[in-house]
Amino acid sequence: MSQNWLGLDDKIVIVTGGASGIGKHIVEGLCREGATVACFDLSVEDGVDEATGARTYKVDITDAESVETAVARVCADLGEPTTLVNNAGVNLPRLLVDARGEAPQYELDAKAFDFMFAVNVKGAFLMAQAVARRLVRAGSGTIINVTSESGSEGSKGQSAYSASKAALNGFTLSWSKELGPLGVRVVGVGPGILEPTGLRSPAYNEALAYTRNTTVDNLSPDYAKTIPLGRPGKLDEVADLVCYLTSDRSSYITGTTVTISGGKSRG
Ligand SMILES: NC(=O)c1ccc[n+]([C@@H]2O[C@H](COP(=O)([O-])OP(=O)(O)OC[C@H]3O[C@@H](n4cnc5c(N)ncnc54)[C@H](O)[C@@H]3O)[C@@H](O)[C@H]2O)c1
After folding, report:
1. Residue 199 needs a FRET pair 20 to 30 A away by CA distance; which of 54, 137, 139, 239 works?
2. 3-class DSSP state for residue 261?
3. Cβ distance 12 to 78 under 8 Å?
4. Residue 161 a catalytic site member
């Protein structure tokens, strides 16, 4: 097979949350395949990432002005974007009701709810609108929303997070109907359990352990019991899927979320 099978040389891709975890692997994968990449993240400085060649932009995706300014800068620096990967996301494990009454800080409150919805839903909307205006003018392009298996299956101790990802699935379905006739594809990527990323901080693990009534040490599931392939997913496996969905090789895929979970499902 030709090394250029994906043909990403003419793609200009904005990846949000590209400084860590899945996003970092997506940036690396896209750069390796020849795409021009702009990494938007809270935790980077404006510049160029020497390891990959990606341009980095310090952006808060929950802030409309920050988003508009950064997208305009990408157009000036690199050219009109062809693709947006809405990857940035946050997760605070919280119970609806702390029935044991031992850790009220792990009961869902408005602040945690607003934080998750601001990044996972409002941030994705602001980014999509700023980029889609340009894709529609060009008459082509792709928006890829990184959601989660929990967005379709729910998750104990992660109701607000999974609801935010279900909202993202709704965006994928609706935007694909609005933008398909204008030449723009919208696809979701829904990972299951993966190798650790920045999202799984010690604070995250402690909160998740409490909400699941277990200890941090016992959090790792017996993968063989829940995942038919018997292991967590690799970040590069998610990145490979995003590279494929960025490519015109996936030109008939829109309005759906591709689950990447090693076969893990409800049953
Ligand atoms: N890790 C998993 O197992 C897993 C599973 C399913 C879905 N996901 C989803 O994958 C995506 C990436 O997760 P990850 O595990 O790689 O997380 P991560 O914490 O390693 O990386 C997230 C990145 O997003 C950035 N970010 C956060 N808020 C931002 C903001 N307001 N503006 C700009 N950047 C911001 C962070 O600085 C960070 O670099 C998320 O949407 C997450 O919900 C992750």
Report:
1. 54
2. coil
3. yes
4. yes
Tell me, using a 6 A CB cutoff, whether residue 191 lines ligand 1: yes
Type of residue numbered 14: I
* Cα–Cα nearest to 149, from 234, 265, 253: 265
Q: Does the C-beta of 90 come closer than 6 Å to ligand 1?
A: yes
Ligand 1 pocket, 21 CB below 6 A? Answer: yes
Domain extent listing, the chain = 12-260
Homologous superfamily (CATH) of 12-260 is: NAD(P)-binding Rossmann-like Domain (3.40.50.720)
Q: What percentage of the chain exceeds 90 in pLDDT?
A: 94
Considering the candidates 106, 161, 210, 244, report the single residue annotated as catalytic. 161
> pLDDT tens digits, residue range 218-234?
888 788 888 999 999 99
Centre of ligand 1 to C-alpha 190, Å, is: 13
pLDDT, residue 265, reads: 79
